[in-house]
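Schema walk-through. Below, the input block comes first and the output block second. Nothing else is stored per chain. Lengths vary across the set, and this one has 317 residues.
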Amino acid sequence: MFEQASRDGQRVGNYRLLRLLGRGGFAEVYLAEHIHLNTQAAVKLLRTQLANEDMEGFRNEARMIAGLVHPHIVRVLDFGVEESVPYLVMDYAPNGTLRQRHPRGARLPLQLVVGYVQQIAGALQYAHEQRLIHRDIKPENMLVGRNNEALLSDFGIALSGHTDSVWSLSWSHNGRYIASGSADATARVWDGNSGKLLLIYNKQGDTVRVVSWSPDDSRIVSGGMSGPVYIWASDTGQTLLTYGNQADFEVLAAAWSHKGKYIASAGGSDANTHIWNAQSGQLLRTFPSESINSVSWSPDDSRIVTANNNVVQVWQI
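--- output ---
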């Protein structure tokens, strides 16, 4: 996974970021200060970039979350998009999370547990009455307020789903995430448990017909109706490599070798299956074949199998 440099001192909206409070795979939270009022808040930066068509979906859902006013829900004060990066401004809870206060396995008095349950249950009931579902209930998303009350946080911004037909789906190998490719010219990464949208990759420029995870889940390869095949970081969406030898062809299939060293890609209008180095993009082998819509590696990476409408072929690498 790729670490990002600290944003300490940067300005986001009307807030100046002071220090990092926490970092997850898909968001960073900073303690920030309002540049005019000198009041402190927590600013959550989502580690993704919004395409133009997703801006209104983000704003609509952020407005709904900002409209939640309850004594046991962290209040969203502001939201916006800075250089295509969406952010939320929230009340700052200086006492951390319930997980930090009560480590896993800690024994708590029954009365304290009942108090937490009542407070969070009340917050969830209120949110459900507003037609909002949290989707990620856990101690890490429950903060401790100034008066030691429990505060439900991180409703998350689901952004929007694909705006056109979905052509490809792929689970990460650890089972936590799903990648999808669509005719809306984007590939997206979702949380496999909550369904929350985590990342939008919009560099493809045309229909994304195939997405596939690297064995260590750090990278995704995607291909589409035209343009090169892309390899990009699964947590940040950073383009790491483009393979251009099939730039003029429709790519319908792509698969990582089990050891992660090679990628096989094939398409409908290209009469070859390509084997190439996943680190350098160097073309290693080509196999003549008809219109291919599926490709897969043998467990020892010594062979590939390809298929078109009525023929299955096995090739020795």
